[in-house]
Amino acid sequence: MEMYRKYIIVEGDSYSRGLKIGEELKVQIELNYQNQEKFYLDKEGFNYGRWGEMAMRYLPHVEKYAPEVLEELKGMAKGAGMALSSGRGNSSYRRRP
Fold this sequence. Notes:
This protein is mainly α. It has one domain (about 15-85). Helix content is about 60%, strand content about 0%. It has helices spanning about 15-25, 25-45, 50-55, 60-65, 65-80.
């Protein structure tokens, strides 16, 4: 199977960048989430859907120490049409400087 990468250029404030990322990578974010969900269920019997719930406990720390990251994640969730608590965007893309 041939792998590919999709590069996008985003500009603006943190929320605007996240919004664009979510819009552009919505399909890839959802597919990555589905793959992770299946992997963890099959491999460890872990309900990956709970990851988003567990990750929400860390939002106050992210907001305090890296508010721009939280704003970008909020934008990604909105752009992809997903709840921030779903955890879908948290590990679904890699940023390049």
